């Protein structure tokens, strides 16, 4: 009977390891998303200021909350597409002009 108890404890311990591993991956993903959002927002703000100084039309910003949620959720797709098409993960209208 003691063999069954250790196998149950092993499974519980293994489940906790999987849980902590999953939690760590989620934190890394969300952390990467927050870093991406901050970097991209900074690049967009800089580009927006340059375009306003040139007298160009600058589109209004989206809701900051919606932008944050989308950037944190889909940052790997945005970074890959921006990098592929523009050579930088933080592509802006200013990088399209180069």
Features:
98 residues, mainly alpha, 82% helix
The tally of domains stands at 1
Order of helices and strands: HHH
Query: Quick one: overall form?
Result: elongated
Secondary structure tally: strands: 0
What share of the residues does DSSP label as strand, in percent?
A: under 5%
Low-confidence stretches: none
Mean pLDDT: 87
Class based on secondary structure composition and strand pairing: mainly alpha
Amino-to-carboxy terminus distance: 72 Å
What count of helical segments does DSSP give? 3
Evaluate the radius of gyration: 22 Å
| Percent helix | over 70%
The major β-sheet equals: none
Task: Give a verbal description of the structure.
The protein has one domain. Helices cover 82% and strands 0% of the residues. The chain has 3 helices and no strands. It has helices at 2-54, 64-86, 93-96. The N and C termini lie far apart (72 Å). The model has no long low-confidence stretch (mean pLDDT 87).
């Amino acid at each position: 009977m003691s063999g069954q108890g250790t196998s149950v404890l092993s499974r519980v311990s293994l489940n906790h390891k999987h849980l902590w591993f999953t939690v760590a991956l989620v934190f890394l993903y969300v952390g990467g998303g927050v870093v991406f959002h901050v970097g991209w927002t900074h690049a967009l703000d800089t580009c927006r200021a340059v375009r306003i100084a040139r007298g160009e039309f600058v589109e209004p910003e989206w809701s900051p909350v919606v932008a944050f949620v989308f950037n944190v959720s889909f940052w790997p797709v945005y970074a890959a597409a921006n990098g592929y098409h523009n050579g930088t993960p933080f592509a802006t209208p200013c990088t399209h002009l180069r």
